[in-house]
Amino acid sequence: MNTEQLTRMLPDERLRSFLRQDVWLHAAERGMSWQEAVKDREAAAIAINRLSAYASDTLKMIVLRFGAEPVAEEKLIQALRDYTRMAGAESRIGVKQLESAGFLFAVQKLWGEKIYWIPSDCYTVWQNALFPFALSPVISSARPLAGASGIREPFGRRILYLLAALAKGDASFTAKGLLSKKTAAKLDEALLLDESKLTVFPLDWANKDHYSLKTAFALTVSSELGLLRKEEGGLALHTERMEAWLALAEEARERELQDRLGGMLFRWVGADALFGSILMGASGGSWYSITEAEKLIAGLTDSMHERAMRGQVESAASRLGMSEWTHLFHELGWMELAEADVEGQAVQIFRWRAFPRENTPEDLIVQPNGEIWAPPGCGYAARWELELLGERVNAEEPLLYRLSAAAVSNALEQGRTKGDIERFLQTAGGGELSVHVRALLREWTGKACRFSFEEVTLLRCDSDEMAGHAKSLAELAPRLIEQIGERDFIVESSSVSEIRRLLQKSGYPPRKGIGGVKAAAASYPSFLSAHERAGAEEVRAEQDAISNERASWLLEPIVLRHYQLVQNAQDDPEVVLLPGIERVPAAWWREMRSYHASTRKEFMQQAVSLETAVQLRLNGEIRSFVPEQVEQRGQEWAVTGRMIAGDRPERSRLTPDMWEEMKLVLPSGIGS
């Protein structure tokens, strides 16, 4: 679940309450909303630096261990025990503080169990604030990398091809609520995407025998962008959003896609999101060593596992690495991959592609033989029209389209006229059309779609007299589109109610029955009148205003919307910290003291119950110890738990004769 979804679901008061927390003071003073602040690098970094030690350690562990993947409450608390120096009570304080400040969210199952997560679209910003990485640019000359040289078409174009194929074809659902197999096959063909770059990710999708992974993936991305919506009978384009999206500068369009894609994938990959996030945080324009990035991440994750108790915590097996992420980004047309020599070693390097930040459309080149060249700077509204009018011949720049009788016939089916086609080619091509092209269009449009079948609504009169009466009514006559024979008229289906009212008013109420259906509208809209947009903000604002639920063909790891979102502080009772502390002598936490063996046992039992740490004087040295279980063996007892040595907890088993003095350690701010 991302910030857009949370903003729609949470009460306004809850959203405002986040910014009343001290950590967000800077953002509040700037007049930012919570949704703006959590994704703003500066505001988020300042807020994270102001978190308490408990909240900061909790957020760090979540980012490294779980990423944006949802996690059950007890699994989260156990991981905090295993990977941090905190006792259970301190971990629960950290969780609660993150909830109050809008960093961590929870849903609750019917039986009370909670599932926690961080918003997926915040992951990269928060990771960068918690663990900033500075990769050094590679100065050496780049050379092609076998199997991954060259560049691919940007993913935005592949989305355009998919939606164009859908709009040209049959987007209706079968009885099973699926697109037809023929349509699914056409979408597959249109995408031009190497599916093997996706299959390495732990994605799951519905109806595997019907949709390929790449089609399910691209349809979900299109829906997330608000370009596609699922209706009762099939899929439909959201034309207003499409118009705005096509009019964006390419840099804004691809950046929006990267952000959406990252937010989607991070929900599935858990700790492996770190690899993708580090790549997405690298500055554009320079080459960077993949090996260096891997070493930086390895140092960070190794440090986390070293802090965990040896022999007790299993490392999260990394399913993905830099290779999988870089090859996916390369396949999506966002990244270049190459090789270079660094310190005498051949290493793989990567560089983010630069895309135009301004809309400066290049003219099409319309050849006399009907071939059309689309240069790299061709606008997306023009590309959309080309997908309808021509057949794409190649996948390299510049793209070649070829006018054909079949494509022109399809354009006429979608409501275009000969004049529309000529005007588009002249305007987009920046000049007059050749005589030969005009002749081709005249021939093809002169033959295609000259006959048609239509479903219309018929107003049937029972006599010539009644037909004459209908024509005599001044308000009704203009609604009679065409007379058929002596007694029947074609009328608009949308006018039936008004015609019924007018006939009733004239003293001749019609039958209550109704027949006919509304003629199907063209499914391939034109966006040639789209106004250029300065950036992605306008599109994002329009997307945020949409309240309909996005359709998804991918199956979420945990479907959070099936559970009750914890929306208000009142809905989530305060964490019961230190239950029974009122029965514990204050002296136990105020000073180091020596106790009788039986008291030491009771002391440790209370610490286990309270989930707190204790300080022990061991051989004259004061050590922190987090007890977890008191073991009784006959007349002897011992306590097991974590001995905190610097940042590295160690599993320990102590008997009461091993320490001289002890003291209960309460969380900061409690018991003082």
Automatic annotation (TrEMBL):
Give the Gene Ontology MF terms in alphabetical order: helicase activity
Q: Which UniProt keywords apply?
A: ATP-binding, Helicase, Hydrolase, Nucleotide-binding
> What's the name of the protein?
Helicase-associated domain-containing protein
Q: Which organism is it from?
A: Paenibacillus soyae
